[in-house]
Amino acid sequence: MASIRKVKLKKGPPKVYIIQSYKDEAGITHQSWIQCADEAEAKELLDDVRAAERENRIYEKPQALNTPLPYAAVAPEDVMTVRELVEAYRVHHMHIGGWEAHTAGNVINITTHYIYPFIGGVPIKKVTPYFLQQFYNDLPNHDAVRSHKGGEAAKISARTVREVHKILRPAFRFAVQQGFLSHNPAAELELPKMEKYERAQWSDEEVLNAINKCEDDPELLTMMSMMFGCTLRTGEMLGLTWDCIEFDEDCNGATVYIKNELARLNIEMIKLTGTKINFQFPPMQAGNRTVQVLKLPKTDRSIREVYIRDTLVQLLRDHKEIQQLNKKEYAEVYQDFGLVFCQKNGRPISDEMITKRFKRFIKNATLRKVDLYSLRHSGATAKMAASGNDLKAVQGDMGHSTPDMLMNVYLATVNKARRKVAEQLETIMFSKIKRPQKDGKSDAGNNQPEQKKQTE
Predict the structure, then answer these.
(1) For residue range 224-275, what is the model confidence (pLDDT) as tens digits?
(2) Most-buried pick from 120, 218, 228, 278 (CB within 10 A)?
(3) Which residues does 417 contact at the CB level (< 8 Å), separation at least 6?
(4) What's this model's pTM, rounded to 2 decimal places?
């Protein structure tokens, strides 16, 4: 139960805190130190803090009390641990809108499994660069926490170590900013190298072959075509609504406005981060800790418009007709949320559902294994070739703020284009080189006998 604690200082009156306990989504108990002006104020607030504790929410002092903001109410620096620092930084960062719900959930997962069990109780004043470097070096020797989906046991990966660093470095920077430390021990550390992963993707011919083999599932055919033709992320495709597609009756074209992304988020994280939700789908059952939502896409530049032409437009029109038949068939049980791609009862299609469906199609059609998201990569490569390597045009369709991601990650090496370059070099340059002969004489090549004669 929340209680009042006084912390004596070398100079001046003692500081007064209310210590509140709360549990995160993993069921792990944390403490929140709420600083008060004096003992009288602490006694005045104690009942409210205990009420918040019973509801398992972090108490926030009313701004009218003219006291420090909640994220400033942390343990004094002489006793603060790594865990308390990270908690203070996390609350502060969410308070200023630094994370959205999905990212905040990942941060809690990393801190819960890979920071607190190892160094959570270490006082921050005892953390040195050497200490953190040894911690990073040791992490890969331990087993990673297995997901709820199971899978084979594995050691903590280099990627996870880097995720740990992405939390600790700004947390210790926050400690310096608040005057708890004089320097950031995580500022200059060596991180493990990550193995480069190149996502497999289909060529244009393979995409066309796959789409043509998908005749028995017209909805999946249309999804694949939209992923490729509009270079959509999976969540953007599943979050499309009909009011975001503007058909141009005059030229058989259409404009697709990407404004939403379908996601499943933790309800508590939505509240804590203030993540902007455009629409929240009603849950299938009461008591769910997560909810499906339509939220803003990944970045500001991800909010964009993409243009499509005849065939894609007709695929969408045909798909809409089938959807109208489903509405009539399911009648009262149909839930109309205006989604372009949905279950037969109108409910949204989850990422897991479409992933399994795509894998099953690839297996049955005996196609080369790729994941659904790779169609976005294939689309980017095809658009670069179709646009004459117009980076800005393709970047706009992808929703990237800079062309770096497009060039470094998405574009596959096109062997056909590379062969063409080699052929051009042969014609304009290499065919004119004088090749040395076995007898020491030079030769300009069998294709240039006249030049050889003149040289002799």
Answers:
(1) 999 999 999 999 999 999 999 999 877 788 999 999 999 999 888 888 788 8
(2) 228
(3) 385
(4) 0.69
